[in-house]
Specification:
The chain contains three helices and six strands. The protein has a three-stranded antiparallel β-sheet, with helices on one face. Strands 5-4-6 form a three-stranded mixed β-sheet. A hairpin with a 5-residue loop joins strand 4 and strand 5.
């Protein structure tokens, strides 16, 4: 059985990895981007790439737990970490921890798909 310190370290590692992965996805970088180029200081709301501050990004972090059942019928809890990166274009970076799992859908939806589909014809008219 893992001790409490191991659980904390694993949780922090998952947070850092999901921040880095969400950032490289947001930047449009390919799979295989060197994650060691990204430095995160979550308590100070700082993120750096290649030693340079990266400004204008907001990271929304969610921790959730799902109950699962193994093929042998044993029930277990499956925790996972989610991070979504948004480029805000301002001069700060921010990390937002969301505690209520019901907030995930509301906070990760930037624009409802049906609203985006309604706008497409007007965008095509200007082309």
């Amino acid at each position: 059985m893992a001790n409490l310190e191991d659980v904390k370290l694993l949780s922090r590692l998952c947070i850092l990895l999901t921040i880095k992965e969400s950032l490289i996805n947001g930047l449009g970088q390919p799979v295989g981007f060197d994650l060691s180029r990204i430095e995160c200081n979550v308590p100070e709301n700082q993120i750096r790439v290649d030693g340079q501050p990266l400004l204008g990004w907001e990271f929304r972090l969610f921790r959730s737990v799902q109950q699962g059942v193994s093929p042998q019928g044993v029930s277990f809890m499956d925790p996972y970490q989610i991070t979504v990166a948004f480029y805000r274009g301002n001069n700060i970076s921010k990390f937002v921890f969301v505690e209520n799992p019901k907030e995930i859908e509301r906070l990760t939806q930037y624009f409802p798909l049906d609203n985006l589909l309604k706008v497409i014809p007007t965008l095509l008219q200007d082309s």
